[in-house]
Design brief:
There is one protein chain. By secondary structure, the chain is an alpha+beta fold. The chain contains 23 helices and 35 strands. The strands form nine sheets. Strands 8, 9, 10, 13, 15, 16, 17, 20, 21 and 27 form a ten-stranded mixed β-sheet that branches. Strands 22-23-24-25-26-28-29 form a seven-stranded antiparallel β-sheet. A hairpin with a 5-residue loop joins strand 18 and strand 19. Helix 18 packs antiparallel against helix 20. It is globular, with a radius of gyration of 27 Å.
């Protein structure tokens, strides 16, 4: 969805604004606003005159705009547990809800969005207040919160889910998300890259950008839950985001993206159902102020798009000045290099109106202009020629603006939305003579790209054992990204202890400190490593990599100083050939509900495997039993510790609850905070000491709250509006 702008002064000055105003489209359950008069005569006058709503439907349209927006959830598609989550929702929660009445109001069971593939998205009329009124719904609410924190469910408004689907992502695609915070759509892009969970490192990646440093941490928080080595968060103005370089066959080439998501900041009048303040603040001036910024971001997006690549432009505004006017201007500038794609068959079941081909402008005083020639000179700074439709009928027809998609709130009980899919058929006119690029040189700025020198610099430092990307910046500095070399002394004990396979990509391992002991080790894909190392002076990286190992105090006495990290276990899984215990469903229950069980509490087979292992970090692996349909039908990988006489799982609280639900154990806290069933308090928080030395600091709870990499302390303070629980 487009970002609803809240600070036009800053955005009007040419800043991205992706972090300035995010509508609540990516937020949680139900509305909690006090009664506000939902009237704006100028709004009604404007859209009635533009005829964006089919004849005879305007009253229905306005009634829908005044109704609260239904809550929607999306099950993450790439997780191997998605089918299990869907099964739990349908068989446990939705069935119980459908016959429920609260205060005389019949609760409607959630319904699958007809246009979203594989029943992976659902909507309901339940508000947060209703969710908490019934103990049964309170359990459902706790389920949603817990699974959201695990990254298994995303609470995201329905129309916000559309742009990633229209991009048609494949695992090898290189993707740029230009205005990404807080990251619900970014999460969709990551999921699509990992459609095959047997491939830990897809060839593609997502570079997610936002102009606002603080909101970049919201983005990190959202992406981190998916534990992908193929995501990088960067902090740039989208309208002049740097052109990056990658090394191929010993030479540096420009990085062009296969897919670009251009979800621009907008006036947000399609969000009135959730953002009630838009009713009193809406004027036509909002769109006039934003049009130039939106066009600059879109131009920069197509400049970075590969030929034959696809860009989706979207807003949560219904105003053609922000929608069709931007697309028409972009098409005209492209001189045939861009084409609007007919996406009508891509989402069967989605109801939408075609883009409009005729519109006019209205000032906040109510003055109308149908053509640039009518605009008085004293208004030329506010009103620009690109805001009007093309005057040449043939040119207008050739643009096929009707291929744009307008989603109206009353058609499928959603927010208002605009989306257009563009394909690049050739280089943009000002890029047709590609500049020559030589190794170790800064590529010249493209003509008209608005690129200016930046005072935010990186430098590459090559040491004996490290290849380090250091960042110097005017704002808060991030920790450095230090890539290890194949002969780094940290590897031999890890290699031996876990019997890593020979194809383990050592060069993809990095740490976030240049000096002293390495506390955590992270992994990125080979392609992202290439991007990091070849863009030292033109990219401000906030975060990349998934944590795979953490240092264990005094761990050397157990044979290895590094224990496995739960968030990276699925990335490491294909390479680990030792320290693995195969467990049953009953073993999973024991490990996740008992505080520090003796080895003898495991089943006979798992117990025998555990006895053969020395103390230290282990993998606890459950493989589905196809003969037992009642058991989870997806693999489960848990990090654990084999002690002298006991065994323990190191799993963050919400993941623990997730796995317990998968094996049929429900954990629920009543309103007094008392637990019913499942894990003990200490087991849930994993806060008790284990018997091995030096493990006090290595609890799963601390793993979950570790802020060295993800800046989650900042994300929590900025997350109140966009990711409500």
């Amino acid at each position: 969805m487009g970002k609803r702008n809240r600070n036009r002064g800053r955005n009007g000055g040419g800043r991205d604004g992706g972090a300035e105003g995010k509508s609540d489209r990516d937020s949680g359950w139900g509305a909690g606003y006090a009664d506000i008069i939902k009237e704006n005569k100028l709004f009604e006058q404007y859209y009635q005159e533009l005829k964006i709503v089919p004849e005879g439907e305007f009253e229905e349209f306005m009634e829908a705009m005044r109704e609260p927006l239904p809550a929607t959830i999306r099950i993450t598609g790439y997780k191997s547990h998605a089918k299990e989550i869907l099964h739990t929702l349908k068989e446990k929660y939705f069935k119980d809800i459908q016959d429920l009445e609260i205060d005389g109001q019949k609760i409607e069971a959630p319904q699958a969005l007809s246009w979203y593939p594989d029943e992976q998205a659902w909507h309901t009329n339940m508000s947060r207040k209703i969710l908490r009124k019934s103990p049964l719904l309170e359990k459902f609410h706790q389920f949603l919160v817990s699974e959201t924190e695990c990254g298994n469910i995303s609470r995201q408004e329905a129309v916000s889910m559309i742009p990633p689907l229209l991009l048609k992502i494949e695992p090898h695609h290189k993707i740029l998300d230009m205005c990404a915070a807080p990251g619900s759509k970014t999460a969709q892009l990551i999921e699509m890259l990992h459609s095959d969970m047997d491939v830990p490192f897809p060839e593609g990646f997502v570079i997610a950008n936002d102009v606002d440093n603080k909101r970049c941490y919201l983005l990190v928080h959202q992406a981190k839950r998916l534990n992908s080595p193929c995501i990088m968060v960067v902090n740039h103005d989208a309208s002049c985001i740097p052109r990056l370089m990658v090394e191929q066959n010993g030479t540096k080439d420009v990085l062009f993206y296969d897919r670009v998501l251009c979800d621009v900041p907008c006036s947000g009048d399609g969000t009135m159902r959730k953002n009630i303040d838009v009713w009193k603040k809406w004027t036509t001036s909002n769109s006039l102020h934003l049009h130039g910024l939106q066009l600059r971001i879109a131009v920069r997006g197509v400049e970075q798009l590969a030929v034959s690549g696809r860009m989706v432009y979207s807003t949560c505004s219904l105003n053609p000045i922000e929608d069709e006017a931007v697309i028409a201007s972009l098409l005209e500038k492209s001189e045939g290099a861009l084409e609007l794609v007919d996406a009508s068959a891509d989402l069967p079941g989605l109801k939408y109106m075609p883009g409009i081909t005729s519109w006019k402008l209205m000032t906040k005083e109510g003055q109308w202009y149908s053509d640039w020639s009518e605009v008085p000179t004293n208004r030329h700074t506010q009103i620009r020629p690109t805001m009007f439709p093309p005057t040449d009928p043939e040119k207008l027809q050739s643009m096929k603006l009707e291929r744009c998609m307008r989603i109206l709130p009353h058609h499928q009980n959603t927010g208002g939305f605009f989306v257009a899919v563009l394909m690049k058929k050739g280089p943009m006119p000002w890029n047709r003579r590609q500049p020559k690029v030589t190794v170790d040189s800064e590529p010249p700025a493209e003509e008209g790209d608005g690129q200016t020198p930046t005072d935010q610099h990186h430098r590459v430092v090559i040491g004996l054992n490290v290849l380090c990307l250091l960042l110097t910046c005017a704002g808060p500095c991030e920790d450095p990204f230090v890539f290890l070399t194949e002969d780094d002394p940290v590897f031999p004990p890890i290699q031996t202890f876990y019997n890593l396979s020979s194809d383990f990509p050592k060069l993809n391992v990095l740490t976030r400190t240049h000096e002293g002991k390495k506390r955590h080790l992270y992994m990125v894909s080979k392609e992202l490593r290439n991007v990091l190392l070849n863009n030292s002076e033109r990219m401000k990286v906030i975060n990349t990599g998934v944590k795979v190992w953490s240092r264990n105090n005094d761990g050397e006495q157990f044979g290895c100083a590094f224990r496995l990290a739960q968030e990276g276990i699925y990335t490491l899984n294909p390479y680990i050939r030792a320290r693995v215990i195969n467990i049953s469903v009953e073993d999973v229950k024991v490990l996740l509900t008992e505080e520090n069980p003796f080895l003898s509490r495991l089943g006979e087979d798992a117990h025998a495997q555990a006895k053969k292992l020395e103390m230290g970090s282990i993998v606890l692996r459950y493989q589905p039993d196809l003969k037992d349909p009642d058991a989870p039908q997806c693999p489960i990988e848990l990090c654990g510790w084999r002690g002298k006489t006991s065994i323990r799982a190191f799993v963050p609280r919400n993941e623990r609850l997730h796995y317990l639900r998968m094996v049929g154990v429900e954990v629920f806290k009543d309103k007094q905070g008392k637990k019913e069933g499942g894990a003990s308090e200490s087991q849930e928080g994993n806060a008790e000491n284990t018997e091995e030395p030096g493990q006090e600091e290595d609890t799963a709870e601390q793993e979950q709250s570790d802020t060295e990499q993800n800046g989650s302390a900042q994300s929590k303070t900025n997350n109140s509006e966009d990711n409500q629980n």
